[in-house]
Amino acid sequence: MKKRVEKSSKEKVDKADSVTDEESPKTADDYQCSGNLELDFTELCKLMAVKEIPSVKIKQSTSTNRRVMESQMTTWSSKPCLQIELENEDHGSVKEVKIFGWKVDEVVFQVLSRILPCLSNLQCLHLWRVGLTDYTFTSLRNTVSLCSNLRKVVLEGNPLPEQSYHLLIVEDSMLTDLSLRNNHIGEEGARLIGSALSTAHSANKTLLSLNLAFNNICDAGAIHIAQGLRLNRSLLCLSLSYNQIGDSGAAHLAEVLSPFALTHEEIVERRKLLIKGEELTMVQPSLVSLADSHERPISVRSSSSLDRLNKSTKNPTKKKDNPKKEEKPAAGQAAKKEDPKVAKKDNKVPRSQAGKSAGKDNNLLVSEQEKVEVVETVIPLLDPGIVHTGGKVIHPGNTCLTSLNLSGNKLTEQSLKVFLSSLEGQGEGGLLRLSLNRNQFPSDCDTFLKIQEVMSLRDPLKKNRSGQVEDEHGETKTSNEA
Predict the structure, then answer these.
(1) Is 297 exposed, middle or buried (0-12, 13-18, 19+ CB in 10 A)?
(2) H-run or E-run covering 447
(3) Per-residue pLDDT of the chain (482 residues; tens, 9 = 90+)
(4) 3-class secondary-structure state, position 102
């Protein structure tokens, strides 16, 4: 009897083990992420045989905790951990992930590449001195592109031999905020970043803030960054503080802020756009009615605008097709007879053919108000402010950049004069904040005082800054914090 009992109990244990084996994933590939970072990270690390699994710490989103976290990010962490911030009390609402002070190996990066895209609320990823390599950076870049709501990446203290940081701001990138401080970025890295910001043929359209402080960009790199600012119309804030930039690099940065002459390559590209616009207006002449200038192709828009315009012609709303119906709902049989006709007409034309028929008939069924709504920002090379003078094509300059930080560089009064001239030459828009502290010129020199006077008139927050000063990085803080 005892043997039979023991045998039956063993069979039950074996069955239980087999059930659990069937339910639990055998490999990392079989694991399905739940969206709970703490749970998923631990389980995947176990499946991938990570010897020392980093802990996951949850931090509340308060200013006090932020200061504590910033103070902790000055030394290497003794115990690896992931610090996460939640949108609410739900553990599946992670909005920020921070890793700082310990080397993240390839296996842990593989784990993160599985988890991060599953975090639907993830908005910010902060990596400080995590020992990135060119290989792990490639994995990180691919992961960032898969995170639907990730808009801010902080990648500091991670020098890369290939300096391929520009891959984070390619034309189709969705990032709006990128910090690359203290990454030993030199001339080549700055050249790649400048090309990612804009060339005559392409431009980044999403990045709003770029921090390149504490690198080795120098004059040559600053010239490349200035080149990228020529036709970029999204970047609002740029920090180049502590980069050993002298008068030559600063002068190029200043010159793109005011009217400048287009290069031969830019002129050739502009002509191509004008020709393309002329061909387009022959097919859809109603698009040109929005342009007041004598240059018709100025109203040329990107393909995305035209696609949206065509979509609006394919599916005109009932409100626009039959306005009388809403104005006079009881207008009698005449109004009722029109409704089925309109519906019939719409049903006869398949969606796939609606655009073709609209193009053939040159009949855009949208009002002037709709056309204004779908029109996007003018292409920089087709800016209405471009003029021809003295055999040159003069562009009005970059007036989208609102904040430029050049603190802690090697500027002298010579480059200050170029900045003053550019500021005075800017029309509407332009810089609202220009940080030039801790450079190689006396703080009481006339040119610097004039620049301060000009900027004080522009700064909309100047009245609220009476109790604020700048720290050594050119960042604004209250006098109590200083």
Answers:
(1) buried
(2) helix 446-458
(3) 444 545 555 554 454 444 444 455 668 788 999 999 999 999 999 999 998 899 999 876 554 455 544 544 444 556 889 999 998 888 888 999 999 989 999 999 999 999 999 999 999 999 999 999 999 999 999 999 999 999 999 999 999 999 999 999 998 899 999 999 999 999 999 999 999 999 999 999 999 999 999 999 999 999 999 999 999 999 999 999 999 999 999 999 999 999 999 999 999 999 999 998 877 777 655 544 444 444 434 444 444 443 443 444 444 444 444 444 444 444 444 444 444 443 343 444 443 344 444 444 444 333 434 333 333 457 899 999 999 999 999 999 999 999 999 999 999 999 999 999 999 988 778 999 999 999 999 999 999 999 999 999 887 766 455 445 455 555 555 434 43
(4) coil
Q: How many whole angstroms separate alpha carbon 283 and alpha carbon 458?
A: 44
Query: 3-class secondary structure for 356-411?
Result: HHHHHHCCCCCCHHHHHHHCCCCCHHHCCCCEEECCEEEECCCCCCCEEECCCCCC
What does DSSP say about strands 152-156 and 94-100: parallel, antiparallel, or unpaired? Answer: unpaired
Per the structure, the count of domains in the chain is 1
CB atoms closer than 10 angstroms to residue 286 = 14
Q: The tokens of 278 are what?
A: 């002329």
Q: Which amino acid is at 141?
A: R
In a domain, 319, yes or no: yes
Could you say which DSSP state residue 158 is in? -
Asked, for residue 118, whether it belongs to a domain, the answer is no
Look at residues 454, 87, 101, 89 and name the one whose alpha carbon lies nearest to residue 257.
Answer: 454
Q: Which two tokens stand for residue 117?
A: 């895209």
Q: How far is CA 275 from the centre of its chain?
A: 31
Contact 203, 197 (CB under 8 A): yes
Domain residue limits at 308: 303-375
The answer to the question of residue 239 being in a domain is: no
Neighbours of 443 (CB within 10 A): 11
CA 216/CA 214 separation, integer angstroms = 7
Find out whether 81 and 54 touch, Cβ atoms under 8 Å.
Answer: yes
Paired tokens of 70 = 């910033």
Name the token pair of 109: 């990066």
Q: Alpha helix locations (H) across 207-259?
A: 218-229, 247-255
DSSP 255-278: HTTS-EEPPHHHHHHHHHHHHHHH
User: Does residue 347 sit within a domain?
Assistant: yes
